[in-house]
């Protein structure tokens, strides 16, 4: 089976689960997946903490992966963080969710009203700037101020914990929707890989599954809307920064999204990193620094421009997932992240935690 990454000269790092063995660290060379797990690098985290992860992965001895195995999220011990409201288009949708109090039936009317009031006044605004402050005051005067606009054009970014360490799912797994949600969507995003010193060392793709009705009722329900069983997908592999791919390349990525339903429904969308309101480097600095340390590093979702407003069923209801949907997040530089959609209560339970990983690595004489 071909690997879900582009046939480029990129340096790739990922994780797989081998039955009766456990999680293994892998790279890809010439279309072949190689197991590079060792005592020097029993975890992806260990490689990211090296002085030169790219050189290590490029030269690491490995053996071809054979037999049965499954993809895992390419991060392991890193914290899983996410930024919200980093694109003007999706920021307006968050305002609509809040105004509708999570009721999808009210969204279309509010969307039209907000668009008439705001227009394109938020385009090209630098968050925290004097111009942004003027827009902020104008919106207040119109009665349209929102906490989402505060983090969208104010000085401080929204950064939250998307998932627990080791709980993210990888390519081919089902992503989960909490059963209480009736209005939800995928969020196709770029995910940066950052070490404990705050250095950005690579990138991959992510699906920040979002429950619009839950968060729309109250921003205080963010954790219930975002962090559920199998609600975070990352993969397929990390593309490490080298002379062919760097942070400037990330700033120009065009992310594609396809949703295919068992009912024949199809939706296509995109998210252009060129339109992000906050620079990725600024988002990293707002997440890790003297104010907050991450000894094992972190992965950071950068947010999305994609806002699904196309009706799926009744007019004015917008988009929501149905069980069995196939979601593909892709771009030529990072490959494809493909997941099916199910309820969180039906997805495989997350049972392999930190203690299990440490015991597994110890039993394999890797630590």
From TrEMBL:
One of its GO terms (molecular function) is metal ion binding. One of its GO terms (biological process) is small molecule metabolic process. It comes from the Bacteria. This is Fumarylacetoacetate (FAA) hydrolase family protein. PANTHER family: 2-DEHYDRO-3-DEOXY-D-ARABINONATE DEHYDRATASE, FUMARYLACETOACETATE HYDROLASE DOMAIN-CONTAINING PROTEIN 2A-RELATED. Keywords: Hydrolase, Metal-binding. Pfam families: FAA_hydrolase. Belongs to the FAH family. It comes from Marinovum algicola. Residues 196-341 form the Fumarylacetoacetase-like C-terminal domain.
């Amino acid at each position: 089976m071909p690997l879900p990454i582009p046939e480029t000269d990129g340096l790739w790092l990922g994780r797989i689960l081998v039955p009766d063995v456990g999680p293994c660290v892998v790279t890809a060379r010439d279309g072949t997946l190689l197991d590079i797990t060792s005592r020097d690098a029993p975890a992806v985290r260990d490689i990211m903490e090296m002085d030169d992860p790219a050189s290590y992965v490029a030269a690491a001895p490995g053996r071809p992966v054979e037999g049965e195995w499954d993809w895992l999220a390419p991060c392991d011990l890193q914290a899983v963080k996410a930024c919200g409201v980093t694109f003007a288009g999706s920021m307006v949708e968050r305002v609509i969710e809040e105004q509708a109090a999570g009721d999808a039936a009210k969204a279309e009317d509010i969307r039209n009203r907000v668009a008439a009031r705001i227009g394109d006044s938020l385009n090209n605004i630098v968050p925290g700037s004097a111009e942004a402050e003027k827009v902020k005051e104008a919106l207040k005067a119109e009665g349209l101020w929102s906490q989402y606009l505060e983090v969208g054009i104010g000085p401080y970014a929204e950064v939250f914990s998307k998932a627990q360490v080791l709980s993210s799912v990888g390519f081919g797994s089902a992503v989960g929707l909490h059963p209480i949600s009736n209005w939800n969507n995928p969020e196709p995003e770029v995910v940066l890989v950052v070490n404990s010193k705050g250095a950005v060392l690579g990138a991959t793709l992510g699906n920040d599954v979002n429950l619009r009705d839950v968060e729309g009722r109250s921003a205080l329900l963010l954790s219930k809307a975002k962090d559920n069983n199998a609600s975070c997908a990352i993969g397929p592999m990390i593309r490490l920064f080298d002379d062919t791919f760097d942070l400037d390349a990330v700033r120009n990525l065009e992310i594609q999204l396809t949703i295919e339903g068992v009912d024949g429904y199809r939706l296509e969308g995109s998210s252009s990193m060129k339109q992000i309101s906050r620079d990725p480097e600024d988002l990293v600095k707002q997440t890790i620094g003297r104010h907050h340390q991450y000894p094992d590093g972190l992965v950071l979702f950068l947010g999305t421009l994609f806002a699904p407003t196309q009706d799926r069923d009744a007019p004015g209801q917008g988009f929501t997932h149905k069980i069995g949907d196939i979601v593909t997040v892709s771009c030529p530089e990072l490959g494809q992240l493909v997941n099916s959609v199910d309820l969180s209560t039906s997805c495989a339970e997350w049972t392999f935690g930190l203690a299990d990983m440490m015991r597994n690595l110890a039993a394999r004489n890797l630590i």
